Amino acid sequence: MQGLQKNKxxxxxxVIVNAFVGAMVGMERSILPEFGKTVFYLSTASAVTSFIVxxxxxxxxxxxxxxxxxxxxxxxxxxxxxxxxxAPVPFILMxxxxxxxxxxxxxxxxxxxxxxxxxxxxxxxDLVGNKNRxxxxxxxxxxxxxxxxxxxxxxxxxxxxxxxxxYPFIPGLLFVLAGLVLSLFYVKxxxxxxxxxSKQSSIPLxxxxxxxxxxxxxxxxxxxxxxxxxxxxxxxxxxxLPLLLIQRHYSVAQxxxxxxxxxxxxxISQLFTGxxxxxxxxxxxxxxxxxxxxxxxxxxxxxxxxxxxIVAAVLLGLGTGLVYPNFLTVVAENAxxxxxxxxxxxxxxxxxxxYVVGALLxxxxxxxxxxxxALYVIAFITAAAGLIANARMCCTLKVFxxxxxxxxxx
Length: 410
What we know:
The protein is an all-alpha fold. The protein is built from 17 helices and no strands.
C-alpha cells in the first residue's frame, strides 16, 4: 500500500542512497576547474568546462534510457547498475595523468548519476503515491544536494591541506561502496506499487511522450524548458564560479565555502519548498525560483566581497530549491503511472542537457566577452524562462494561491 508513513523504512533507505549519489558529484564540484588549471595547465574557460559537457551529455542520455530500461529491468536492477558504473570513477580521478582521463571519469559519473538519481526519484514516487508527493521529492532532493554541498566543502578542505592530486577523491571510494551495498542488499524493488497505482489512475495516457514532454504539453513542456535553464546556470556556477572567485583572489577554503553553501541551501530548502508544492500552485513557485536565481547571478557580479558571495550563494540556493522538487512533482502528476518512468526520462534528458548548453555557452561567452558579461547573459536567460512558465503553465489542483485553473494542460 502506498504512503510515506507506511513505507518509511524503505523511503529513508532510498534517501540515504541518494545522499551518496549526490556526494559523488560534490566530491569534484568545488575543485575540478582549478585542478584542471594547476595540474594540467588548461588556459581557457571552454577547456576547463569540458568535463561538465562530458558529464551533462552522458547523464542526459542515461536519464532518457531509464525510461526505456524500465520496460525490461526492475528499478532495483537499474539502481545497482548505476552504482557499478560509478565504481571506477574515484580511481580514475585519483590517478589521472592527462585531462582526457578526467573527461572519461565524468562520462562514467554522468551515466551513473542518470541511472541512480532518476531511479531513486521514481522509487520514492512509487512508494508515497499522490499524497505528500511534494514533501517526498523535497526530502529526496534535500538529501542529494545537501550531500553535494557537504562533499564540495570537504574536498576543498582536503585540497587546501594536501593539494589537488589524489587525496580529495579518496572519499569517493567510501561513497561508492556504501551506495552499492545498500542498493544491492537492502533496497527493495517498487514495481508492485506501480501496478497497484495504475489500476486506480485517471491520468490519460500520452500518445507521443517525447514531443509532449519536450514542449507541446503546457505543464510538462514548461518544466522541461525551465529544468534545462536551471541546470544551464548550475553548470555555469560549477564551471565559472570558481574561476570568478579565483579572479577576485578568494582563498581555496573561501571558494569551497561559497561553492558548498549554494547546493547545501538548495538541498535544505527543499524540505520546505517540496511541501509548498503540495499546498500552492507550482507555476508561481517555479517562476519565483527562476527570478531569484537570476537576481543571485547578478548579485555575484555586482558584489565582489566574500560576504557578498555568501549572500548570492544563499539566494541562488533558495531559488533553485523552490523549483527543483516542483519540477518533479509536476511531471509525476501529469504522467500516467505506467508512463512515468519514460516521461521522467525525457524531462531529465532535457534538464541535464542544460549542463552541456551551460558549459558550452558560458565557456564561449567567457572567452569572448569575459566572465562577468557571460554571467549577465545567463541571468537574462534564467529570468526569461521563469516568465515563460508563468505565462504558459496552469494549476491542475485546488490550491490556496493560484492565478489560473485548468483541467487539461495540453
